[in-house]
Amino acid sequence: MKEKSYTELMKSSAMNRKKAKESFVLDLYVEMLLSESLLKAEKEKLTKRIDQAIDERNRPEFFKLSNEYKLLTKRFGT
């Protein structure tokens, strides 16, 4: 088995660090996309339930769901 030179080892190490960094960024991007999708789905669901409470003139349900919506937007900073 041939041993690698110091230069080859350094290049290999630098490439491994670069790949790890790129992988981290890609994982972060995927996580952000998933979070955004979940947030949109939850907002849409709450909006429909709020509209239904308005249509039914159900004030307690409206206020409860409105508070949930506020908390959701506050939690995700939107």
What keywords describe this structure?
78 residues; mainly alpha; 2 helices
Strand content: under 5%
* N→C terminal distance: 57 Å
The helix fraction, in percent, is over 70%
Stretches with pLDDT under 50, minimum 5 residues: none
How many alpha or pi helices? 2
Taking the sheet with the most strands, its summary is:
none
**SS-based class:** mainly alpha
Apparent shape: rod-shaped
Mean pLDDT across the residues is: 88
Using only C-alpha atoms, the radius of gyration works out to 25 Å
How would you characterize this protein structure?
With 78 residues, the protein is mainly α. The protein is built from 2 helices and no strands. The model has no long low-confidence stretch (mean pLDDT 88).
What's the quick description here?
With about 80 residues, the chain is mainly α.
Compile the SSE list and pairings.
Blueprint lengths: L5 H50 L3 H18 L2
Helix pairs in contact: 1-2
